[in-house]
Amino acid sequence: MYAKVLIEYKVKSLDRTFTYIIPPKLENILQKGMKVTVPFGNGDKTINGFVVDITNEDNFGNLKSIISIEDENLVLNEELLKLGEYVRDTYLCTLISAYQTMLPSSLKIKTITSSYKKYETYLISEMQESFLEDYILNEAKNDMQKEIIQCIIKDKKILKNKFNQSSVKTLIKKGIIKEYKEEVYRINRENQKKDNLLKLNEYQQKAYDEIINNLNKSNTYLLHGITGSGKTEVYMHLIEKVRSEGKTAIMLVPEITLTAQIVNNFYDRFGSDVAILHSALSNGEKYDEYLKILRGDAHIIVGTRSAIFAPSKNLGIIIIDEEHSESYKQDNTPRYNAIDIAKWRSNYNSIPLVLGSATPTYETYARALKGVYNLLTLPKRIGDANLPTVEVVDMSLEMKKRNTVLSDRLKELILEKLAKNEQIILLLNRRGYGTLVTCDNCGNAIKCPNCDITLTYHKTSNNLRCHYCGYNCKKPEKCPECKEGNVRDLGTGTEKLEEELNKLFPSAKVVRMDADTTSKKGSHEKIIRDFKEEKYDILLGTQMISKGLDFPKVSLVGVISADSSLNIPDFRSGERTFSLLSQVSGRAGRSGIESNVVIQTFNPDNFTIMMIKQGTFLKNYQYEMAIRKKLKYPPYYFLVGIKICSKEYEDASKEASKVYNYLKSNLSNEDIILGPTTAGIFKIKSIYRFQIVIKYRFDDNLNNVLKELDEMYIDNKSVYLEIDINPYYI
Questions:
Q1: Residue 476 maps to a domain
Q2: What CA–CA distance (Å, rounded) separates 424 from 443?
Q3: Nearest-angstrom CA–CA distance, 18 and 280
């Protein structure tokens, strides 16, 4: 027998299968989708790969044999093998990189997985129960020996390390008990399981019934519910129904911060039947959770973007919460969108896909209004809790009163809520202390040497940092340009705001949640848990605090700088601003207490800001769609973004012109080609980037042209292309 093996090799042209003999010892074990070790090239070199086919054909000539199976527990099933081909063809990547993307880091092609297995040592006895009882009465030397035997009689097996090791050794030596090792999972929440599904209200029940009545169809549903309307409870009921029919469910959340809170809710409902997949897990934990799913020991998978590739058997439903989140789009190769992958799996398995959001993307909402998706609405909060009162503060007037960070109105409300022992959330979507460090003599702004961006000042470490490449240096005393002036930081980041809050409200307990305070494992969960347990009065953070979190005592949300996302030169900036501010506003008043939202802005008359105050998603959608229709942006046109990248400016510029001319010569005249222009931040990590954007409606030849273009640059050592299908940012 022979196996066709897809190997991992840096040369893109070798993204194909190689045929190997299956040795007799592996014939009854080897399966399609297994990871194997094979010889490759001359000499003793070995390499890993995936078996993608097994055949009896014998016309291959002189072949080498497979050396070993890397891990018998790891098998990419037929669905995932086909899904890899879809990812390759859609996102113009190699097949091996598509398969690699499906695996957690602990199971990548080069990783040796056996080292991740964890074992516990248990004690058992092969003696009759009557013999053991007699031994307790007549021969046990002490109470510890009696307790060990009594526990074994009761539980059949017990953990060795929970008992006195001297007594254990004595009983083992006498042959009364013996020890054995058993592979165990690192995460096991068996004891948390509770039967506490809540009763659905009228709107929730209607949405639930619509989906349940079509469980065996590949329909896509948009569950459009305002913040606090109980979308998660609908998800829980749907998953319970699917699980009762012996099927599995995948639920995606956009952020690790959300994963912690939702996973705990799922553990409470479904116990150890839940597996979690996200980047904050250790390699060993990822290995365990993946095996849980493969073995069928967990039927509910909760995770971030990559969990969409979970090897679920008998998949029954896919749910994507906060579907508007840009974190569902991967920004490196393969640049897939988890929602597209979910649609493929929905069609493959003939199951429903549920997209949930209070502020869905306008492309999704347009499809729902046209009937491409099924629109389900939750127009009221649970328990008829009221939405918060939204106030807009004009910061240009506050600046005249020297209120540069917090307005008088926001400070007044913070004091009022603190007096009532209620909690506050403040959103400032900028990390660090000062957002710009400049010379007071020559005006020079200190930039990153690797990126076309100014450095951010972090006061706690007295460092200047680049948030793109990680470069950091100590804050200089003198200007590095003119050598005379003093440098000072301008602007406000979360670190400076935290300092300001501690000065203004010394009795309040403030906690900051951003990329700097959540870098350690478990830090997200701890901050969220502590705030929910009211150990803190004020939660200050970046956009990671804006969606999905549920804190009953929060009665005030303050948005410190609503303009930062509005000023981004992108056609989606209005949509993103509305979504961000609506989501963070929705954290207030979820338990029914009277609540307020204060939005600080220099543009109080901006249409998007006014629509947030009015709480009218539909009007903002209609306004933005009218603009997009005129300018030919999604959903009226599709987009492709092409970045031409090089360490040399001249090379990038020259090749960008060549790419443009090639596209102009080979694409339809109806396609719109914009560029080449500099791509956002022109230089990142010492790489210069030019961008070309293609707008198109229907072009059957486009995919072939992009493939040819990609292949033209496979062997180019100085310039490379990044082709992004339907990019989130341009």
A1: no
A2: 38
A3: 35
Q: Determine which helix (DSSP H) or strand (DSSP E) holds 365, and give its type and residue range.
A: helix 362-370
Q: Taking the model in full, what pTM does it have?
A: 0.91
* CATH number, domain with residue 320: 3.40.50.300
CB-CB contact of 621 with 365 (8 Å): yes
**Best CA proximity match to 152, nearest among 173, 170, 168:** 168
Smallest CA-to-CA distance from 416 within 613, 593, 562, 590 is with 593
Residue spans of the chain under pLDDT 70: 10-14, 106-107, 109-115, 190-196
Q: Count how many domains the chain has.
A: 5
Amino acid making up residue 597: V
Judge if the upstream peptide bond of residue 334 is cis by omega within 30 degrees of 0. Answer: yes
pLDDT for position 106: 64
Torsional sign, CA 43, 44, 49, 54: positive
For residue 563, which of 438, 326, 362, 396 has the smallest C-alpha distance?
396
Cβ-count burial of 342 within 10 angstroms (0-12 exposed, 13-18 middle, 19+ buried)?
A: buried
Structure tokens at 170: 């004595």
Residue 461 in any domain: the answer is: no
| Same domain? 606 vs 648 | no
- Residue type, position 157, single letter: K
Q: What is the pLDDT of residue 381?
A: 92
- Domain span at 703: 638-725
Three-class SS state of 643: strand
| pLDDT reported for residue 98 | 92
